[in-house]
Design a protein that fits this description.
The structure holds 2 protein chains of 2 kinds. Chain A is mainly alpha-helical. Chain A has helices at about 15-35, 35-55, 75-105, 105-110, 115-145, 155-180, 185-200, 205-215, 215-225, 225-235, 245-265, 270-275. Chain B folds into 2 domains: about 1-80 and about 155-250, Rossmann fold; about 90-155, no CATH class. The chains are: A mainly alpha, B alpha/beta.
Chain lengths: ~280, ~250
């Protein structure tokens, strides 16, 4: 028997929006289901703020450096770094989710969609960024009670910076997920990506201090995109724009996204090059 | 008439190992085609190529006349897939799994809700719509996956060993369910299996062995071709070593 079928559904702008909403909805739901993930995402920076920063407050004095117009406490200095840290961990968490999805087979459901693969991956990226921005604002709300109080307008001006940084770190996570074959290999990401990116940056100490201690490390920090992500957030939180940080962050976000799309392309990507069952999305 | 699925000269290698060698066959519109092959025959590789999880290295694949490499979106929109491995999101309810699948096909919530209700009723799981997928048995999960694959009204349903790991009762139930749904929805089916008892007298059969197509056509023709009295004997004759030399 041959039935009469309607013509294939046209991918109207509304359909694209429905698809994007669906991906964001699913990621948000997953995040809500994993309460431990939300708690740990908040506890991590708060431990740094409440314990590490409190301990170092008297040891590390911060001179007047842009965007600050006065002397600041160390707690205030590391807040943008901790905001970026939340997004860094979230980006890697998203990467972990993608590896998990690939192992569990859920990724196939996504990749079977008739929408272009770049759009599906971009949707995942938007979803991860959305979740990370929520986490950052939750952190800022708690930090307010710890006297971390940027200008009220800063809460708004920092939003575009958070979105861009979220996209950059999410795209990096996505790219890494295409390189990781199994969930067990993910610990390497902690050692070789998260820790070096975070510590070799301006998140914990201003770069002029790093330069005094080690010119070589200063150079590494300058080339670390995470440094520019932190600075973009730092300036935006005080209603200012750091042009170099914006350019580097936007450039790296585009580069990582492009690389991730290529990596997930069945005809060109690393997944295809590997062949064999482990490569299957 | 344009075939539902047309596979032409498809070859695929994993490094030096050839998984598929110049495979070609068609699935006619409205046909129930069984892809028979032992483990390692290349069935899963072929599925990964049809579903575009792997890129074609050689040859071409068309769905209803649309080349998968050149028009992937239009081709995938007409394809429903049930993989051998479970692909339900275990943390989501059945209804949420359906909404997510619908969204990935650009289908809004109202239409998805109505269609999910209809399909869950068809697989006799209406009362489990709000249960988490992880709370279902293996057979129930498979039924949900089949229902979900039909949500966007595909014209071709491909299933990769959908009865693996199920007990005899669940296996029979799944097979009955798909044949029933096919009859009501009128679509074409490519059903991969290594179990000859899943072949019905009116089916088309494609026999794949070690990446090489050994036969393709209606079951009656296959039986006549091999001189066998049943599917199992025909399949064993076609996959015996050395090759019996029966061409497609």
């Amino acid at each position: 028997m041959t039935a009469t079928f309607p013509p294939p559904r046209r991918l109207t702008p509304k359909a694209w929006l429905i698809c994007l909403k669906g991906i964001v909805w699913r990621e948000s739901l997953r995040f809500l289901h994993q309460r431990e993930r939300f708690v740990s995402a908040l506890v991590r920076p708060l431990v740094w703020l409440f314990i590490f920063a409190a301990g170092f407050r008297q040891v590390l004095g911060i001179s007047i450096i842009p965007p600050y117009d006065t002397y600041i406490l160390y707690d205030v200095y590391i807040t943008p770094g901790l905001m970026a840290m939340i997004q860094l961990f979230n980006g890697m968490q998203s990467s972990l989710s993608m590896v998990y999805d690939r192992e569990m087979g859920n990724m196939r459901v996504l990749l079977l969609s008739p929408f272009p693969r770049w759009f599906l991956l971009f949707g995942k990226l938007i979803a991860g960024t959305f979740v990370s921005v929520l986490q950052v604002y939750a952190y800022l709300a708690i930090a307010w009670f710890w006297d971390i109080r940027p200008p009220p307008l800063g809460y708004l001006t920092v939003l575009p910076a958070l979105i861009l940084v979220g996209l950059m770190l999410g795209a990096l996570g996505m790219l890494l997920s295409s390189l990781i074959r199994q969930l067990e290999n993910f610990a390497g990401v902690m050692n070789f990506v998260i820790f070096p990116m975070f510590f070799a940056s301006s998140a914990l100490y201003p770069l002029w201090r790093v330069r005094e201690g080690s010119p070589w490390l200063y150079l590494v920090c300058q080339f670390n995109p995470f440094t520019h992500a932190v600075e973009l957030i730092r300036f935006a939180l005080y209603g200012q724009l750091n042009g170099l940080a914006l350019a580097v962050t936007a450039g790296c976000a585009s580069l990582f996204m492009l690389a991730a799309i290529i990596a997930y392309d069945p005809s060109r990507g690393l997944m295809a090059l590997r062949g064999a069952p482990g490569a299957r999305a | 008439m344009t075939p539902a699925l047309e596979i032409r000269h498809v070859s695929h290698s994993y490094g030096p190992r050839k998984a598929l060698d110049d495979v070609g066959f068609t699935v006619a519109p409205g046909a129930f085609s069984v892809l028979l092959g032992l483990n390692g025959a290349g069935k899963s590789t072929l599925f990964s190529l049809i579903t575009r999880l792997f890129a074609l290295q050689q040859g071409s694949i068309s769905l209803f006349g649309r080349d998968l490499s050149h028009h992937p979106g239009a081709a995938l929109a007409q394809l429903g897939v049930v993989f051998q491995a479970r692909t339900l999101d275990l943390d989501l309810s059945l209804a949420q799994n359906f909404y997510y699948h619908a969204a990935l096909h650009g289908i809004g919530k109202a239409e998805a809700t109505a269609r999910a209700k209809e399909l869950l009723a068809a697989v006799e799981l209406s009362d489990r719509a709000n249960d988490k997928a992880r709370d279902l048995s293996g057979g129930q999960m498979r039924r949900v996956e089949i229902a979900r694959a039909l949500l966007h009204r595909p014209r071709l349903l491909v299933l990769d060993e959908p009865t693996v790991g199920l007990d005899i009762g669940a296996r029979a139930g799944i097979l009955r369910l798909v044949r029933g749904l096919i009859a009501s929805e009128g679509m074409s089916v490519l059903w991969a299996t290594h179990l000859t008892d899943e072949v019905d007298s009116g089916d088309d059969v494609v026999v794949l062995h070690k990446g090489v197509l050994r036969a393709a056509g209606a079951l009656v023709d296959l039986l006549a071709q091999t001189g066998a009295s049943d599917v199992k004997s025909a399949f064993l004759a076609l996959t015996a070593e050395p090759s019996p030399g029966i061409a497609a």
